[in-house]
Sequence to fold (225 residues):
Amino acid sequence: KNQVEQSPQSLIILEGKNCTLQCNYTVSPFSNLRWYKQDTGRGPVSLTIMTFSENTKSNGRYTATLDADTKQSSLHITASQLSDSASYICVVRGRNTDKLIFGTGTRLQVFP
Amino acid sequence: EAQVTQNPRYLITVTGKKLTVTCSQNMNHEYMSWYRQDPGLGLRQIYYSMNVEVTDKGDVPEGYKVSRKEKRNFPLILESPSPNQTSLYFCASSDGGSGNTIYFGEGSWLTVV
Fold:
């Protein structure tokens, strides 16, 4: 069964610190993996999209990595800010399909 | 500005009273879809549409209908809402390529009592 699992479920860090969120997936064959940021009560907003041939992709203070062999991805947030408080959702798309498999997200809280 | 607009944003309704959640996008996207988001679960696809007059079921279509008469609009219809359809609903659109960004609306909070 195609699945996307994220860890941790929730995370609390202090402003200015770095953190890393994990995503493991079983979707095969694989087309691409996306990370979305979802503020409370708002729609998800795309951070990165990576295909199987890409190992890393950055968007400002957000850096996503992908290991297609082990089916793992991580999202690293550098020098966290209060505005980073949100849920981060990992989404995987299989090849030859329009369907996306969503993880349940990691809820990040950044405190001053 | 690229936008996916949903209405209403918040709605409380009673069991059995038909309702429609509208969705409109201004990016001329071919692909549109509806998702619901419930606590502890990832977004689940309800219906999707590849183009005008082309719609298909997602993972949780029971109790929902959609139509795609125009490219920009993709309304979600609940013919006879039930309490288990209380959820946060998102409309999304993209131009169809597998690697293209998907844009989500701001969400519609629906409560069925």
